[in-house]
TrEMBL record:
InterPro entries given in the database record: Expansin_CellWall, RlpA-like_DPBB, RlpA-like_sf
This protein's name: RlpA-like protein double-psi beta-barrel domain-containing protein
PANTHER family found in the cross-reference section: EXPANSIN-LIKE PROTEIN 7, PTHR31836
Highest taxon listed in the record's lineage: Eukaryota
UniProt keyword terms in alphabetical order: Signal
Pfam families the UniProt entry points to: DPBB_1
Limits of the RlpA-like protein double-psi beta-barrel domain: 33-84
Amino acid sequence: GVGACGKLNTADEFVGAMNAQQFGENLNPNNAPICGMCVKITGPKGIVKVKIMDKCPICKFGDIDLSPAAFNVIGDEAQGRILISWEGC
């Protein structure tokens, strides 16, 4: 669907939603500086690079909600939540 960054994304794309605290406050979230940022995420099964295209209001600081395609690269989707580390790329 259409995320906070104003773009339409699908479950097959490598995209993520940043927690609200780190997404930042912007009068127009489509113009948030974090939109389109590349993030390299390390999880139990490997590493994936995603573009931040949405905001996750229920996520805790440090969390990133991932599309199914991206999540499946680094973890088992059946787990729902996994421990990750991430950095800009």
